[in-house]
Specification:
Putative membrane protein, ABC-type transporter activity, membrane, mainly alpha, flat, five-stranded mixed β-sheet
């Protein structure tokens, strides 16, 4: 149905007319994010800078954190700054290298640890340029690498300009400040000489007061030490008392716990005694019955043994008689057989068997008679008969001891009840004792703690008094020395005043070489050095990463356009659909291999690609050409000749989504989402990995994606052709590839 619609003349004209507009619309939609300024290129920012302390011309020490200023300027830029179009990630060197290798970022900007030190040197006599390094990887896009270099230069220029302005302003401002300070110091030195005379007089009086302060502080320290010694003794005694009280309290607790366990055991014991006496009562009641039963048992045993012996003797006599009778009968039968010739052979046989059976019976009966005699004469029967009387006597003794056991159980039960009552009283008293002793250690500990704190405070007082005494003594000595030095200060102040006035008229001078170096560094205080990992050697290699896959895509489109997918003649045969489509694809792959040979040869001859990369590039070209051919075969199977027009539109979409014109992060979100799944993306990634010599995993991933595309397109083409064959609709009128 789709094929019939697309084959209509008006429909074809409309499709051809809107193709340029569709392709243009794809580019406009994809680059909308870049034009709006919302899209950003991911980059890593590594700040290894160390803070330095710099002393300015005015004598003030300033902390310089130039690296932090650069980080702040890049991560929070204005819309016109160098970092405005970059999504910065602040990280360390190791993680940044990993992110660059994985393609998570396109550039690494590194601020070295000597950055602030170099910046600080700008205001000295030996200034040095501060370096910023920018590292990119051509394996993730050469255009981004070029952008990285430009960004590095822009950062260096912008940061360097700010530093130059600050240095020049601070330099001349510092000189003015120094000159003003020198003049003020000269005036102050003159006044200092006048004040030194007054200071000498006042210091003499202060020395006398210091002597008196030393004496009083020494007395205070001595008394405080004695008081602290007494307080420590008190605290020690209270601590010992608290320890003893705590031990008593712990013992009382253990006593209370043990008494509780004891009373619990007494209660359990009393209950057990009650149970025991109940059992004894039951036992004593059953003993007479047991004795009576024993007597009956002994009498029954005698009767049983008498009957057993008598029966065995009678059985032995009977079995002997039966054995004799069986033997006599057997002999009679054998006599009949021997003496009566009129008997038939069958009768003789039967009588002989009967005689044999009677002999066997006689033998068994004789054995039974012997067994019965052994039972009657067995000596163990006499032992069994003798065991009866002692058993009867023991039963009588057991009945007597049961009565005594019942009497003792009653007495034991009464004593257990009294023991339980006494245990309850002991438990209550022990608990009261433990409660009282538990409160005693707390009070003693509080008193000991207070005494310890008091002793500590008195010690501190004594220490402070000693320090006060020492300080007063030192003050007295210092005041006397200051009084002596004040006179010398007055004399030297006049000399300082004249020297400062002379120095105020001078400013630092630099040699010509120092001036030239300072001018160079101040003009460009920051230098950006750019490095590119997996660098493509020239424009030819850069162009090849995109041109080779695009050429293979166009070649596949031309191949299917000229020769079709599957011929009408073959569709009418009985050959299986899979075989038809596979055969057409295989014949096309042969041409695709030839295309790969030609395109690799052209690249090697004209674009300067390394010969070592050509075998891998040829493999990528063959697999990409086969995959693209399968995709175009599917397009023509579904859309007919309009599939070629759709191929042009898809090429435009893929050129934008693959990042071949812009970095992928600068295109709109939908194109970023589909980019990893497009066949042209896989081909470009594999080609770039081959030409840059980067990770082999990238090449393998790209080739695997192309193989999956080829298989998917082949399966879908088979399904479409099979459906059309069943509906007897031929979808292509162009000649087949033969």
């Amino acid at each position: 149905m789709i094929g019939r619609i697309l084959r209509a003349p008006l429909t074809r004209l409309l499709i051809v007319a809107i193709v340029p507009a569709v392709v243009l619309g794809v580019f406009v939609a994809a680059l909308a994010a870049a034009d709006s300024g919302d899209a950003r290129i991911p980059a890593a920012l590594v700040n290894n800078d160390r803070l330095v302390q710099s002393k300015g011309a005015d004598g003030k020490t300033t902390t310089i954190a130039a690296g932090r200023l650069v980080v702040t300027g890049l991560t929070k830029p204005a819309s016109s700054d160098a970092g405005a179009s970059i999504d910065w990630t602040l990280t360390n060197t190791k993680d940044a290298e990993r992110m660059l290798a994985d393609g998570d970022v396109y550039a690494i900007v590194t601020i070295p640890k000597t950055f602030s030190k170099s910046i600080a040197s700008v205001s000295g006599t030996s200034p040095k340029q501060a370096d910023i390094s920018v590292r990119t990887d051509d394996a993730h896009g050469t255009l981004v690498s070029q952008i990285g270099g430009v960004v590095g230069s822009t950062i260096a220029s912008t940061v360097g300009g700010q530093i130059t302005t600050s240095v020049v302003s601070g330099l001349y401002g510092g000189y003015a400040t120094v000159r003003s300070s020198l003049l003020q110091a000269a005036d102050g030195a003159t006044k200092l000489g006048d004040g030194a005379d007054s200071l000498s007089s006042g210091l003499g009086k202060a020395a006398d007061g210091g002597d008196r302060l030393t004496t009083g502080a020494s007395s205070l320290g001595s008394g405080a030490r004695q008081l602290a010694s007494g307080q420590r003794s008190l605290a020690t005694g209270l601590g010992t008392a608290a320890s003893g009280a705590q031990g008593a309290a712990d013992g009382a607790k253990r006593l209370a716990s043990g008494v509780g366990q004891y009373t619990d055991g007494v209660s359990t014991y009393a209950k057990g005694v009650t149970t025991y006496t109940d059992g004894v009562t039951t036992y004593t009641k059953g003993v007479p019955d047991y004795a009576s039963g024993v007597e009956q048992y002994a009498g029954g045993v005698d009767q049983l043994l008498d009957g057993l012996v008598s029966g065995a003797q009678q059985s032995a006599a009977a079995q002997s008689q039966l054995a004799d009778g069986s033997s006599t009968a057997a002999d009679g039968i054998r006599g009949i057989v021997a003496n009566d010739p009129t008997l038939s052979a069958q009768t003789r046989g039967a009588l002989s068997q009967i005689a044999a059976g009677l002999d066997t019976a006689a033998t068994g009966q004789a054995a039974l008679a012997d067994g019965s005699r052994q039972i009657a004469s067995n000596p163990d029967l006499a032992k069994l008969r003798a065991a009866g009387p002692p058993l009867v006597s023991g039963g009588a003794q057991l009945a007597s001891s049961g009565k005594q056991l019942a009497a003792g159980g009653s007495t034991l039960s009464s004593g257990g009840s009294k023991l339980a009552a006494g245990g309850a009283g002991l438990d209550s008293g022990t608990a009261s004792l433990a409660s009282g002793l538990a409160q005693l250690p707390g009070g003693i500990s509080s008193a000991a703690a207070g005494a310890g704190k008091l002793a500590s405070g008195i010690d501190q007082l004594g220490t402070g008094a000693d320090q006060l005494s020492d300080g007063a003594s030192q003050l007295t000595d210092g005041v006397r020395k200051s009084a002596d030095g004040a006179g010398q200060l007055a004399s030297g102040a006049d000399k300082i005043g004249s020297g400062l006035k002379s120095g105020a008229t001078q400013v630092p001078n630099l040699t010509k070489a120092q001036q030239a170096n300072a001018g160079k560094v101040v003009a460009a205080p920051v230098n950006a050095s750019a490095t590119r990992a997996n660098e493509l050697s020239g424009p030819g290699q850069i162009v090849s990463t995109l041109i080779v896959p695009v050429g293979l895509w166009i070649g596949a489109a031309a191949l299917v356009l000229l020769f079709g997918a599957v011929s009408r003649r073959l569709l009418a045969t009985g050959v299986g659909t899979g075989r038809l489509v596979g055969g057409a694809l295989l014949r096309g792959v042969v041409v695709a291999v030839a295309q790969a040979v030609l395109i690799v040869a052209v690249v090697a001859a004209t674009l300067g690609v390394s010969w070592s990369a050509l075998p891998a590039l040829f493999l990528v070209a063959v697999i990409a050409g086969a995959a693209f051919l399968a995709v175009h075969q599917l397009l023509q199977a579904v859309f007919g000749s309009a599939g070629t027009v759709l191929s042009i539109v898809l090429l435009g979409v893929q050129l934008v989504a693959v990042g071949g014109i812009y970095p992928i992060q600068l295109v709109s979100a939908p194109f970023q989402a589909i980019s990893p799944f497009l066949p042209l993306t896989a081909a470009v990634n594999a080609t770039t990995a081959v030409l840059t010599g980067s990770s082999g995993g990238t090449v393998a991933t790209g080739l695997l994606s192309l193989v999956l595309w080829a298989l998917l397109a082949f399966v879908l083409t088979v399904a479409v052709v099979a459906r059309r064959r069943t509906s007897t609709a031929l979808f292509s009128a162009t000649p087949a590839l033969t």
